[in-house]
TrEMBL record:
Protein name in the entry: Alanine racemase
InterPro entries: Ala_racemase/Decarboxylase_C, De-COase2_N, Orn/DAP/Arg_de-COase, PLP-binding_barrel
Transcription listed as a keyword: no
Assigned keywords, A-Z: Pyridoxal phosphate
Pfam families assigned: Orn_Arg_deC_N
Length: 448
């Protein structure tokens, strides 16, 4: 069984926590339950600093916003306030959490499709920046702003549907732009158009850079009409490299999946250019006149906004599942299924009908005497046949026993709670914010 290409990248401090503090992990699980998510605000802070360094190296004005949907933990919002970055939200609850963490309303971006009136009123009251998804939403907001009688106009961006995303349900088509700009001129007493935004699926830096150039072209068009636009929002989409090996796809040819499960595709788990390095490539992307995106931003005195979620959460969390028992798979000679205390809802790649491939670690106080590998799939403890955390048979060096812990690495970005559920009347998993300073471990319950 070829395994090396699917070993998870794991920060040295997290490796040390898992290897040297087994009793502490078990204590947390005994007291707080399984599954249990550990989050690391210091890793999150380091990622923020890395993005800032790239932006400052390119000498562009910027506003960095954390895409709040990627993780609900309150500690990350608190770090945003400390690092003086904003938060991108799409609900009243997310907006309130950002404010409670100390983030200024002016540093909160509001995105999502046709937004509810309570969310829009909250955004207007705190001078947030609202990304408008359609001409109809633009009209609704203008009427809302006029009726509210605010002293200052509502700050907005127009969300554009890029040419590469023609099937997306989000954003204005290019053909709608002229109507939207005319509306902004007519209603400029109540709404202030500051620029344009876009959100792309996928992680192609060239495509994202070209979309940035397209947004700048729209800025120039709006300025010719007398609209004082000064910023673009290029969204998130900066990949995370979960695996060291570029050969991970080939390794799947040697892997076996429970019940012969097959998947249509996987996240690109190894990325040679990821995180802040991917942003660097985006800013270097040139248009047809061979002008880089960074250069155009500088020359036109524009601010670039970006909303990383997953990339700011790289190595910022792990998920622990306590083993309830293990049994052989019927009809096989060497495959097993370990049932854990928890469900696959807490590992949300299942939401996309795919598999979280970085191999988890088996943590045990006991050591097998036999020199063997055990092929183990990991199942949730619900009554659903499809409740599988890992359909793939993982090669463990020892047989999973009751109260052993299976640790999934690097799960803070979308995995932990995007798909959580109270199925079987269970409580959602708790989170513990862990600070690692040398050999000293401090922690507190994160009451999300």
């Amino acid at each position: 069984m070829k395994q090396a290409s699917l070993n998870a990248v794991c920060h040295p401090q997290i490796q040390s926590l898992l290897r040297s503090n087994k009793a502490k992990l078990q204590e947390w699980i005994n007291g707080l339950g399984s599954p249990l998510h550990l989050v690391f605000p210091e890793m999150f802070q380091q990622n923020i600093v890395s993005f800032k360094q790239v932006l400052e190296r390119h000498q562009v004005d910027y506003q960095l916003l954390f895409a709040k949907k990627a993780n609900k933990a309150r500690c990350f919002a608190a770090v945003c306030a400390q690092e003086n970055i904003g938060i991108d939200v799409a609900s009243v609850a997310e907006f309130e959490l950002a404010l409670a963490a100390g983030v200024s309303g002016a540093d909160i971006g509001v995105s999502g499709p046709h937004k509810s009136e309570p969310l829009l009123r909250l955004a207007m009251a705190h001078n947030a920046l609202i990304a408008i998804d359609s001409v109809n939403e633009l009209s609704d907001l203008a009427c809302l702003a006029a009726g509210a009688g605010q002293a200052q106009p509502v700050r907005i961006l127009l969300r554009i549907r890029p040419q590469s995303q023609k099937k997306s349900r989000f954003g204005l088509a290019g053909s709608e732009l002229e109507q939207a700009l005319a509306f902004c001129l007519e209603w400029r007493r109540h709404i202030q158009l500051l620029g344009f935004s876009c959100h792309l699926s996928g992680y192609c830096t060239r495509q994202r850079g070209q979309a940035g150039h397209q947004l700048i072209d729209y800025i120039e068009q709006a300025r010719q009409l007398g609209l004082g636009c000064d910023r673009i929002n290029i969204g998130g989409g900066f990949a995370v490299s979960y695996l060291d090996s570029p050969d991970w796809r080939q390794s799947l040819d040697y892997e076996a999946f429970h019940a012969d499960k097959a998947f249509g595709g996987f996240y690109p788990y190894h990325n040679p250019v990821a995180g802040a390095d991917a942003l660097h490539q985006v800013l270097l992307e040139e248009n047809e006149q061979q002008l880089s995106l960074g250069r155009r931003l500088r020359e036109l005195s524009l601010t670039v906004l970006l909303e990383p979620g997953r990339a700011l959460l790289d190595q910022a969390g792990i998920s622990l599942f306590s083993v309830q028992g293990c049994k052989p798979v019927s009809g096989t000679s060497d495959c097993h299924i370990a049932t854990v205390s928890g469900m696959s809802f807490s590992l949300s790649e299942q939401w996309f009908n795919t598999e979280y491939l970085p191999s988890p670690l088996l943590i045990s106080e006991q050591k097998d005497e036999e020199d063997a590998l055990y092929k183990v799939a990991v199942a949730g403890n619900s009554c659903l046949d499809d409740d599988m955390l890992s359909w793939r048979f993982i090669a463990f060096e020892q047989y999973p026993k009751k109260q052993d812990v299976i640790a999934y690495i690097n799960t803070a970005g979308y995995q932990m709670d995007s798909n959580e559920s109270a199925f079987h009347s269970t409580e959602p998993p708790r989170k513990v914010a862990v600070m690692l300073t040398g050999d000293v471990i401090t922690w507190q319950l994160d009451n999300q």
